[in-house]
Amino acid sequence: MLLNFNSNLYLYDKKCNFAALKIMKMVYILGIESSCDDTSAAVIADTTMLSNVIASQKIHAEYGGVVPELASRAHQQNIIPVIDTALKRAGIRKEELSAIAFTNGPGLMGSLLVGNSFAKAMAFTLQIPLIQVNHLQAHVLAHFLNKPNESTPKPQFPFLCLTVSGGHTLLLQVNDYFDMVKLGGTIDDAAGEAFDKAAKILGLPYPGGPVIDKYAKDGDPNKYSFSISHLPGLDYSFSGLKTSFLYFIRDNLKENPNFIKENIHNLAASIQSAIIKSLTDKVKKVFKESTCKDIVLAGGVSANSGLRKAMTELAKRYNRNVFLPPLELTTDNAAMVAICGYYKYLNKEFVDYDVSPYSNDSMQK
Length: 365
Ligand code: KG4
Ligand code: ZN
What we know:
With 365 residues, the chain is an alpha/beta fold. It is built from 9 helices and 13 strands. A hairpin with a 2-residue loop joins β10 and β11. α7 packs parallel to α8. The protein is globular and about 65 Å long. The relative contact order is 0.17. The model is unreliable at 1-22 (pLDDT under 50). The chain binds 5'-O-[(R)-(carboxyoxy)(hydroxy)phosphoryl]adenosine and zinc ion. 5'-O-[(R)-(carboxyoxy)(hydroxy)phosphoryl]adenosine binds at residues 36, 165-167, 192, 195-196, 207-210, 213, 299-301, 303-304, 331-332.
């Protein structure tokens, strides 16, 4: 029987004596995420999520998108209470932490700087290791988190991953925790951006993805058709789809000023279906080319109910296993940063205090 006392695992022997045989130390990682407009902190014990606190910044809704300057200010206001709450919910004192992992890129520079600076100051004060995390790798590795008293099956390396978020659309082959090879990506807008822009055209609030998803549930996905791009290979493009949607709405509004209002469910369902078709067409292609048995979905758009259903059906048809992240781990969160930090902790991949954030799309750090 295993017992957890003061962050160490002890073995309870068969005669029920406390053998007090220390077998291994539990690793407690504090994760900090501040790359865009969510301030989040989480504590994990090895791979088990003890807390995952997210403060979403509502202020951007009135501007129809993320305003970088407002995002970094809000991170500054949120970061202390969010970290404090994450530690309290986990029931962990800061002195018990083994290391601090923080998102160092890609993302908005002003937002990243808040998490980067706070993590450095806290790690220095506690004299514990500092770990930099790549946001895109974190979305993928979210699949390796466990909930307390629950261990779900995990994808087996090498596996495929479709990462779809507000800033990224990537098809990856994941050979190991930190060996991810890009097979394809977007040449313009990301899938989440396509959802957000379509929502804006329909006069819906930001972020538009969840709102379109909600309206689409009661709409006919085949009511309207919009042209999707057919780039060769495994790359994506969403800017043409956005433009055709914009012109279609504009032309119909000229005929009927109530066109959006009267057709909102069918419009949402049809644009959602076009984005999903664009995404799944390339997945079909990669299924034909790759021998990987497992595919995982990652990133904010992986919360989309239509995409989850389409990927589940497609995987079944091609005899693959699909792994869908729990909804709470789809959009930006710090638990995914902490799990990335955990695997780097095991490899002793620590950074010094002079490490700077990066805004570019690197998958390497
Ligand atoms: O991963 P994420 O939180 O942030 C980035 O790293 O970009 O993704 C945010 C994106 C937004 O574009 C949002 O509209 C989209 O994820 N999203 C959705 C849904 N929930 C969030 N898109 C479609 N359907 C959803 N249910
Ligand atoms: Zn993200």
